[in-house]
Specification:
The complex is a heterotrimer of chains A (about 325), B (about 300) and C (about 250). Chain A is mostly helical. Chain A has helices at about 5-30, 30-55, 65-85, 100-120, 125-145, 170-195, 195-205, 210-215, 220-245, 255-265, 275-290, 295-310, 315-320, and strands at about 155, 245. The N and C termini of chain A lie close together (about 10 Å). The longest helix of chain B is centred in the first third of the chain and has 31 residues, at about 1-30. The chains are: A mainly alpha (about 325), B mainly alpha (about 300), C alpha/beta (about 250).
Amino acid sequence: MSETLSKTVLIAGGGICFCLLPWAAVLWGEHYLISLFTRILIYALAAVSLDLLIGYGGLISLGHAAFVGIGGYVTAIFFHHSFAGEPLAGLIPGSENALLVWPLAVLAAAGCALLIGSLSLRTSGMHFIMITLAFAQMLYYFAVGLEKYGGDDGLSLYSRNQLAGMDLGSDMQFYFVCLFFLALFLFLADRLVKSRFGLVLRGASSSSRRINALGIPGRNYKLVCFVIGGAGAGLAGALLVNQTEYVSPGLLHWTMSGELMVMVLLGGLGTLFGPVLGAAVYLLLEETLAMYTEHWMVYLGPILIIVVLFAKRGLFGLLTIRE
Amino acid sequence: MILFIEQLLNGLQLGITLFLMSAGLTLVFGIMQVINLAHGSFYMIGAYVGATVAAATGSFLLAVLAALGAAGLAGMVVELVVLRQLYKRDHLDQVLATFGLIFFFNEMTRILWGKQPLFMDMPVWLKGNLELLPGLIYPVYRLAVIVVGIMVALLLWYLFSRTRLGMQIRAGASNRQMVAALGVNIRLLYTLVFGLGTLLAGLAGVMAGPIFAVESGMGESILILTFVVIVIGGIGSVRGAVIGALLVGLVDTLGRAFLPTLFRTFLSSATADSAGASLASMSIYILMAAVLIWKPRGLFPSHQ
Amino acid sequence: MADYILQVKKLCKSFGAVEASRDLSFNIERGHIHALIGPNGAGKTTVLNLLSGELEQDSGRIYLNGEKLDGLPVHKRALAGLGRSFQITSIFENLSVSENMALAILAGQGHNYRFWKNSMKSAAVESSLVEALERVDLLGSAGQPAATLSHGEKRQLEVGMALVGRPQLLMLDEPMAGQGAGGTVALKKLIRSIKGQTTILLVEHDMDVVFSLADQISVIVYGHCIASASPEEIRGHPEVQHAYLGEQ
C-alpha cells in the first residue's frame, strides 16, 4: 500500500467514524459521548490551525491559545450584551446571531494575530518563541482585568448562539456544525499548503536566507500564515464557548497553548490531519486516565519527552506507511 | 515621595528576583542555544524544598542551603538525562521536551506536597522593619533580598571578569565552536553553566518563599517575566539581564502602585482601579514591544 | 569607457572596533567573471553581504547598472538582478529537488499569494522546470528530498536556482569549498557555460580556479581593495605578493 493510499484510507476512515459517532452514541445510550467528541472536534480545529503555523510555517508560537480566547471572548461579550439588552460601549448592540458574531470572532482573532505577528516576526528563533508567549500572557492578564465580563471568574452564556434555522442547543446538531467547520478548515488548509503560497511558506520555514535571495519577502508570507492560523483558532474559540456556554481567562493561559502543542505533536507535526488524531487521543486519555489517577500529568511529561526524542512523526506518521 | 521610594525599593527587589532567574537562563540560551522552558521548575523546587526544611528545622539558613542543593541537584540530573539529548535538536523539540518537564515537575509537587499552597515563615532574625529615612519604614527581609542580590551580582561579575572559568563562559556565549576548538571541555562547561543557572533559580525561589505563596505552577508566572527580561536585555548577555531585570521590576511595581491612582484623576474610582490594574499587568509587555520595535535583538545582543 | 554592471564606491562597515570594510571600491565589467581574492578574514564575505543587502554599510555606495542599490532589502535586490550562492549551501532541505527549483521559478512570477491551485501545476513551473533542472544536471534526482543530495549536487541545485531568475550579476561565495576534484571540474564547466548569460562575481580561495576562470581579479586585504586588474597583472603585483607572502 502506498503512502498516499494509506493516508487517504486513514482520513476517510476517520471521517466516517466521526460522522457515525453521534448515532452510535445514541444507540449505546452514552449521550455524553456526543459532547466529548464535540470538544474533540473543536480542539482539533485549534490544533490544526496551530499545525499550519508550526508544521508548515516553522513558526513556534507558544501563545496560540490567546487567539482561541479572543474568539471566545468576542462571542461571549456579544452574547452578554444582547442578553442584558444594553449595547457595547453604548454604541454596538449585542447579538446572539452566529452568522454575525462568529465571523466577528474570527476577524478579531485574525486582527490580533496581525498585530502580534508583525511585532513578533521582527525576531526569529528563541526570541520569537518567547515573545509569542509573552504577548499571549499579556492578553491573559487583559482578560483577567475585564471586570465587566467576569474577570477571573469568567462569563456564562444563557444558551448557545442562534445559527440560521438550526437549534444549536441540540447536542447532535451542534456536533455536526463543528464537524462541518473542521472538515471545511481541513479542506481549505490542505489546498493552501499545496498551493504556491504553501510552497513559499514551506521554503521560508526551511531557509529564510534562500527565500529572500530568490526575491521573495519570506517574512510577509509568514505573517499571512500567522494570521490564517489565528483566524482558525478564533473560530475554534467561538465554537468552544458555545459548547461549554462559558468563557474564562483560562482559555488564554499558556497551559492551554501547551495542550494544543502536545496535541499537534502527538498527532503528527506538519500533517494537518494528524492533529485531529492528536486531539482525540489527548482528550480521551484525559477522560480515561483521570478516572484512575488525578496525577496522570506526571506520566504525560515523560511520555512527551520520549515522543519528542524518538517518535517525532506522531501517531499519523506511525499509522501511515512510509514509502 | 516616601511611597515612591518604598515602591522603588519593591521594584528593585522584584528586579533582583528576576535577575537571579534570568542571569543563568540567558547564558543557557546564549551558550548552549537551548530554549529551556523548565527553568521555572527549579525556582519552584527551591521554594518547596526551602519551605519544607524551614518548617521542619526552623532554620532559614538550612532552608536556603537545602534549596540550593535540591535545585542544583535537580538541575544536574535534568541536564544529564534530558538536556544533553536536546543540544543538537531544533528549537521545536526543545520547547516540547521542556514542556514535558514542566508537566512532570508541576504534577510531582502536587503528588508530594498536595494541592494546597505552602507557607513559609519569615526567619525571626529578618522580621521587622527598618527606618531608612525619616518616615520610610521598610521590611528588613526585603532589604536582605536586595542585599543578597547585589552580592550575587558582584560575585558573578568577579566570576566572569576575573576567573578562568568565567572567561570561558563569556567566550562560549559569543563563540561556541571556537571555545570547543580551543580544547575547553565543552560538556563540563555546559553542565556547569546549566547548574549555575538552576542554583540561582533555586535561590530566587527560596527567597521568594516567605513573600509569595509556594504552589505548583509558581515557576511559570515568573518564567514568563524572565523571558521578557531576556528579550529586553538580549540573549546571552548578563549585563542585559541586569538592566532588563531592573527595568521590568521597576516598571511592573511602579505601574501597579501608581497607575490606578493616576487613572483616578480622570475616571471613576471603580473603573480606574480595574483599568489601572489591568494596564499595570500589561505594562511590561508593552515595554517589551516598545524595545522590540527599536531593537529587535534586545538592548545588548551578543554577536553570535 | 567600460560598461560596468556593478560599481562599489568606498564601502565602509565596522562591527564595534573591527573594520570589516574600509573605503572599499571596485568595479565589475558586464559579461566578466570577476574574482575577489584575499587572505582569510580580509572581508570578502562581508562584501557579498553588503552587496546582497544582508548587511547595511556604514557609508559608501553600490550601483547596479547605474541604479543605486543601497537601502533596498535583500529580496528587492534579488529582483533587481542579483543572484547568490552562499558559503554554506543554502537550499530548501525540507523540499524535494523539483520543489526547490519550482520555488525559484515562482519567485519571478510576481507575488505568490495564490492559495488554491497546486503549485507544481502552475503554468510557469510546468513550462520551465525540466529545462531548469537539466541545466544543472539534476533532472534524474527531481523527486528526491533535497536533503539527500550529495554536497556537490546541493551546490549545483543552489546555483541552478540562482540562475532561474536570469540574474544580471551572480555572486558565488566559495563554490568550490568542500568539493572533491570531480565536483570542482563540474562547477568550473557550469560557470564557463553560463558566462555569456550573466556576469559573475566569484569569491574563491582555490587559486587554480581563480586564475583559470577570471577575466578580472580584485584583491581584498583588511577590508580594502588593494588591486583590481587582469590575472597576469595581479600575479606580478608587488602589494599582492606582500599581502599573501608577507615580508620577503
